[in-house]
DNA sequence: TCTTGCTTTGAAGTGCGCTTCATAGTTTAT
DNA sequence: ATAAACTATGAAGCGCACTTCAAAGCAAGA
């Protein structure tokens, strides 16, 4: 069993965030001591890490809550949950596509700067000249 | 030259967002007609698409503004810009790592559901039983 | 001409995901 | 015993990225 602070340290979240997640029902109700202090179990910690993972995937709080609600409603909701998980996966793929595009453009831009830095003569381009030069390179 | 509405249609943004980006100086000042209506040029459209791409990479408005400010200050800022672009790339890689992790977990979860659906006997698991089953699978 | 639709502006509003605050009780070390 | 550190709660606040609103002007077709 771990205190609020320990749980926070183990997950890299703050105690405030943990309370917030609990209030938003992303976590099961956390056990308490006699004096109402929270006691996080190993299972709780695992659960928190799952939520964290979903948040890293930019799954909104609301969706996570829905998913967990289904989870607590037992086996009859499996096919719904499978559908949600499939939607997460589709969304993840589209996010990754976006990042790939951004990464490609950004890497091209970096290569362009490397090249410019080799030629001090080009360092007085205006931003529009530079932009046009960059664009025309990309199109070739 | 394109009207506000046309520019919005071409980029998939709203006219309000385009005005917002301009106000935040993510775009160069857009040309106007006699009656102060905006006229977006092809270069403006390209520029908007670049901003859009950076936003897709979750680059904050503030960073984009900084970058563009450097851009307008000419060639002496090239090395600073190269550094910023490198930071974008590093951040993109870490975002993609997060997505990869989330994707792996999510796919595992999906496979788990597929399997469960094959065995109707397991459909009455409580959520904790299911969770433990899932966890123990992952560890093997 | 009149109506419908597009455009302008600044200001205020929205939704999300936390974070901070104020106040109060508990535990631990000295 | 007392100070320092940890915990609790509800409510308010914050930063971001837009979005919507209100009030007004311009434009193009029936």
What does the secondary structure layout of this molecule look like, with pairings?
The structure is a homodimer of 140-residue chains.
Chain A: H1 4-11, H2 15-23, E1 31-32, E2 38-39, H3 42-56, H4 61-72, H5 78-118, H6 127-139
Antiparallel strand pairs in A: 1-2
The first copy, chain A, binds a DNA duplex (30 and 30 nucleotides) through helix 2.
In short:
The structure is a homodimer of 140-residue chains. By secondary structure, the first copy, chain A, is mainly alpha-helical.
Describe it for me?
2 copies of one chain form a homodimer. Chain A has 140 residues and is an all-alpha fold. Chain A has one domain (4-105): Multidrug-efflux Transporter Regulator, Chain: A, Domain 2 (Orthogonal Bundle), CATH 1.10.1660. In chain A, 70% of the residues lie in helices and 3% in strands. Chain A has 6 helices and 2 strands; from the N terminus they run ααββαααα. The first copy, chain A, has helices at 4-11, 15-23, 42-56, 61-72, 78-118, 127-139, and strands at residues 31-32, 38-39. Chain A has a two-stranded antiparallel sheet. In chain A, a hairpin with a 5-residue loop joins β1 (31-32) and β2 (38-39). At the A-B interface, α3, α5 and α6 of A face α3, α5 and α6 of B. Chain A binds a DNA duplex (30 and 30 nucleotides) through α2.
């Amino acid at each position: 069993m771990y205190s609020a602070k320990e749980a926070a340290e183990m997950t890299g979240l703050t105690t405030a965030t943990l309370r917030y997640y609990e209030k938003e029902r992303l976590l099961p109700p956390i056990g308490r001591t006699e004096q109402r202090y929270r006691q996080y179990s190993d299972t709780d910690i695992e659960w928190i890490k799952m939520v964290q993972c979903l948040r890293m995937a930019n799954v909104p709080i609301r969706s996570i809550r829905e998913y967990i609600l289904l989870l607590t409603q037992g086996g009859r909701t499996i096919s719904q949950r499978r559908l949600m998980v499939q939607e997460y996966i589709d969304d993840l793929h589209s996010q990754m596509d976006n990042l790939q595009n951004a990464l490609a453009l950004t890497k091209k831009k970096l290569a362009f700067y490397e090249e410019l830095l080799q030629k001090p003569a080009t360092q007085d381009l205006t931003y529009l000249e530079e932009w046009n030069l960059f664009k025309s390179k990309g199109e070739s």
